[in-house]
């Protein structure tokens, strides 16, 4: 569908602009990095490109998880109006590549040695048909807890190692009159949390089979049912105003001490950074209980479009800057993520970042690195959207039981496949 819609415009755009002209010294970038921490991270890139004489044309589309941004991108591309690059997640890159609208960064990749420095798990999504079509910016991971340290001390809590420990900790916060769990009731946030619940409930093999292989037996198993029951349990610790809340406002509740904990990808740490908070002193980062040793990842990629010739030099400059070792360190320190290259030292990262880098390496080597279904790395967008929809209906009571949730999940994923 996307393919048919886009191929005509791809050809039209290429021909319309193939005349030689002076290089346009501008990078046009579509993204959904609009929170305080995200904007601070993006400024690192804007600064690096400005030093090389490139102007920045920002195309921000608010909305964590990027659904709104991807709708905007589709409209732009269908109109033949390609940005230099767009923030994209996993399977979306492959969809645009299959539609024939992406550029080819292979020459730059060869020159810069990306084949050797970017892990295979990311190359699977940034290389299509042997050509580099995207530059990975980072690796985020979603199976984290972000905890306010002062609240933790006040309630006498300790790191929860199992799901039951976690429930006991949430009970302590509740008894102390603190909101136990900060959640934004938007489908992508709920599903991002559910990714961790499933890994914790079923273990690494189960997560992979269900959410990366889309194995029917696993999707409809008792373990999946139990995962929904565990999710229902967590939702009892959320405050009544959670519906529709933005993810960074949920993070702010933890930063301020209004809530004990948020389950969120490590972009949440970007908000703690922006608020000048220090891990170990002001906040704590733990793996979601029962998931230590595994990493559920997503990676922000800059998908590179097949822009007119006079815009290609700017695109190469953007791609080169994005994968430079110094940028990979400076940007990810601010963003809360870890480098998309394996050869960047962890020296400048805080304790959570150092743990993130070490965990990623161990998971990659040990076969426990899994794509996030909620974050576009488990399955193509249609399946991910079906998943987010079912999880959200369950959280908001439109699907009432875990039995029903499992039935709906299997059906929705089957229909979307
Ligand atoms: C992206 C992060 C971003 C988060 C919230 C995720 O999908 O990977 O970079 O910070 O959404 O906006």
From TrEMBL:
A Pfam family reported for this protein in Swiss-Prot or TrEMBL: SBP_bac_1
Superkingdom of the organism of origin: Bacteria
Residues annotated as signal peptide: 1-21
Gene3D superfamilies on file: Periplasmic binding protein-like II
Subcellular location: Periplasm
Cited InterPro entries: Bact_solute-bd_prot1 (IPR050490), SBP (IPR006059)
Keywords tagged on the record: Periplasm, Signal, Sugar transport, Transport
Keyword Transport listed: yes
Claim: Transmembrane helix is one of the keywords in the record: no
PANTHER family: ARABINOSE-BINDING PROTEIN-RELATED, BINDING PROTEIN COMPONENT OF ABC SUGAR TRANSPORTER-RELATED
Family of this protein: Belongs to the bacterial solute-binding protein 1 family.
Protein's job: Part of a binding-protein-dependent transport system for a sugar.
Name of the molecule in the record: Probable sugar-binding periplasmic protein
């Amino acid at each position: 569908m996307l393919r048919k819609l886009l191929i005509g415009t791809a050809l039209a755009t290429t021909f319309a602009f193939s005349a030689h002209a002076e290089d346009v010294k501008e990078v046009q970038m579509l993204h959904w990095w609009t929170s305080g921490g995200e904007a601070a991270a993006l400024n690192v890139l804007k600064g690096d490109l400005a030093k090389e004489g490139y102007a920045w044309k920002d195309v921000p589309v608010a909305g964590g998880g990027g659904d709104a941004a991807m709708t905007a991108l589709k409209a732009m591309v269908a109109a033949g109006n390609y940005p230099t690059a767009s923030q994209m997640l996993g399977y979306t890159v492959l969809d645009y590549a299959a539609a024939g609208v992406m550029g080819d960064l292979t020459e730059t990749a060869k020159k810069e040695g990306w084949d050797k420095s970017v892990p295979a798990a990311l190359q699977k999504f940034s290389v299509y048909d042997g050509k580099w079509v995207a530059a990975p910016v980072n690796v985020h991971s979603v199976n984290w807890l972000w905890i306010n340290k002062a609240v933790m001390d006040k309630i006498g809590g300790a790191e929860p190692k199992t799901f039951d420990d976690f429930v006991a900790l949430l009970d302590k916060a509740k008894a102390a009159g603190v909101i136990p769990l900060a959640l934004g009731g938007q489908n992508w946030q709920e599903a991002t949390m559910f990714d961790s619940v499933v890994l914790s409930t079923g273990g690494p093999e189960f997560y992979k089979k269900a959410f990366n292989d889309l194995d029917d037996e696993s999707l409809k198993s008792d373990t999946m049912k139990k995962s929904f029951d565990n999710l229902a349990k967590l939702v009892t610790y959320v405050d009544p105003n959670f519906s529709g809340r933005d993810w960074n406002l949920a993070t702010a509740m933890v930063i301020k001490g209004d809530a004990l904990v948020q389950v969120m990808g490590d972009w949440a740490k970007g908000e703690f950074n922006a608020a000048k908070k220090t891990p170990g002193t002001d906040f704590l980062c733990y793996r979601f209980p029962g998931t230590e040793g595994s990493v559920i990842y997503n990676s922000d990629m800059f998908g590179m479009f097949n822009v007119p010739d006079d815009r290609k030099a700017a695109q190469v400059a953007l791609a080169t800057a994005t994968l430079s070792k110094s940028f990979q360190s400076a940007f990810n320190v601010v963003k809360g993520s870890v480098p998309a290259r394996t050869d960047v030292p962890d020296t400048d990262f805080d304790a959570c970042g150092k743990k993130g880098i070490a965990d990623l390496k161990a998971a990659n080597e040990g076969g426990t690195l899994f794509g996030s279904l909620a974050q576009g790395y488990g399955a193509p967008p249609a399946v991910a959207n079906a998943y987010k929809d079912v999880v959200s209906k369950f959280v908001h009571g439109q699907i009432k039981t875990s039995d029903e949730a499992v039935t709906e999940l299997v059906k929705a994923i089957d229909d979307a496949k």
